[in-house]
Design brief:
Length: about 350
């Protein structure tokens, strides 16, 4: 990741302060290349519990442990298979989380009670500096920061420091550091790959699509990546409804979009359409048309910031044109589909993996 302008990067003193807060068992928010994270000492059940309390997150929903580039994966995992080493060499630091067997001495608080653990090494320079400073403060030099996205559970992930401050004003007022790191380069959460069951003939399994695609992983491993099965471990961001704005969001086919443009079956109030092309010449007066990039990487980078901006504007509904159903758009489709599901599922579905 390129270096950041000074006004978009936390100072060394701010990073050192945040690292000390983590060492003291407190929370700190920090940037990564994917989204901003809400961090705590991964080896402290009491500290990790503060993440769950702040987010309103179910205690059985695991969090990802972030380590510095010089960190030792084998400290966290009971075993690191050759497949994991290949992927680490290819994609770390970067937006890839590996699910491995959890080492016995690592508390299961970070795993939602499971025998696995999610680990990644972020590429953002502020995240790396924080993680290195935190690890240096540990007696054994091995420090991991548990950090889901820094937002209330199920809501839109933050891609700027200001999003975090808006989400947790009371925690910030009470002294929680929020490290500045500019806009997130990737803009959606990491790819999650399960390698914890290879010895049982299961995997690799793609639990959550992201910037690093299944095709890229297959090219490194030389084997097929499989879809989640019934026995797959629970992982961050894989509930049916997730990543949702507060404004009702509808995912629309091209046919539905044509009806929308003519004002058919719309709610009362103002409606915004998020679509690839220019607005039709004949457009219902209640509609605002918001064009977005027809490129999956640029779309992903802009998505969460856009949803947060639209949330502030008092729309009755956000209608999003469904992206193409191709591999390149898999991660974006995953996020938008889960966001729309928050407004279509029965409430009993919302906590289902």
């Amino acid at each position: 990741m390129p270096s950041l302008p000074p006004h978009e990067s936390a100072s060394a003193a701010e990073i050192a302060h945040a690292a000390q807060r983590l060492l003291d068992g407190e929370l700190a928010a920090f940037p990564t290349e994917t989204v901003y994270g809400l961090g705590a000492d991964a080896e402290s059940p009491q500290a990790v519990a503060k993440i769950y309390a702040a987010k309103g997150r179910p205690s059985n929903h695991p969090v990802i442990v972030h380590i510095a580039p010089q960190g030792d994966v084998s400290y966290w995992a009971a075993e690191v298979p050759p497949e994991a080493r290949l992927l680490i060499d290819a994609f770390w630091p970067g937006p890839l989380t590996l699910i491995l067997k959890r080492a016995p001495h690592i508390v299961d608080t970070v795993s939602g009670g499971q025998d696995s653990i999610g680990i990644r090494c972020p590429s953002h320079p502020v995240a790396q500096a924080l993680l290195a400073a935190f690890a240096a403060g540990k007696p054994n030099g091995q420090g991991g920061v548990a950090a889901p996205s820094a937002n209330k559970f199920g809501q839109v992930s933050p891609t700027r420091a200001e999003h975090v401050r808006h989400e947790f004003p009371e925690a910030v007022a009470a002294g929680m550091p929020v490290l500045e790191g500019g806009a997130s380069e990737v803009g959606i959460e990491s790819t999650i790959l399960d390698l914890s069951r290879l010895d049982r003939g299961a995997g690799p399994v793609l639990l959550r699509p992201g910037h690093i695609s299944a095709a890229q992983i297959e090219a490194v491993l030389g084997v097929q990546v499989f879809a989640p099965d019934a026995a797959a471990p629970r992982a961050s961001g894989t509930l049916k409804a997730h990543y949702a704005p507060r404004t009702p969001l509808e995912l629309a086919s091209d046919a539905r979009l044509q009806d929308v443009a003519l004002g058919r079956n719309l709610p009362e109030g103002r409606v915004v359409v998020v679509a690839y092309g220019d607005a039709p010449t004949a457009l219902d007066a209640r509609l605002q048309w918001h064009p977005v990039p027809a490129d999956p990487a640029r779309y992903a980078q802009a998505l969460y910031g856009l949803l947060r901006d639209l949330d502030k504007q008092g729309y009755a509904r956000i209608i999003v044109q469904a992206p193409p159903a191709t591999d390149e758009w898999q991660a974006v489709n995953d996020r938008i589909g889960r966001a729309a599901a928050a407004f279509t599922l029965d409430t009993t579905d919302l906590q289902s993996p």
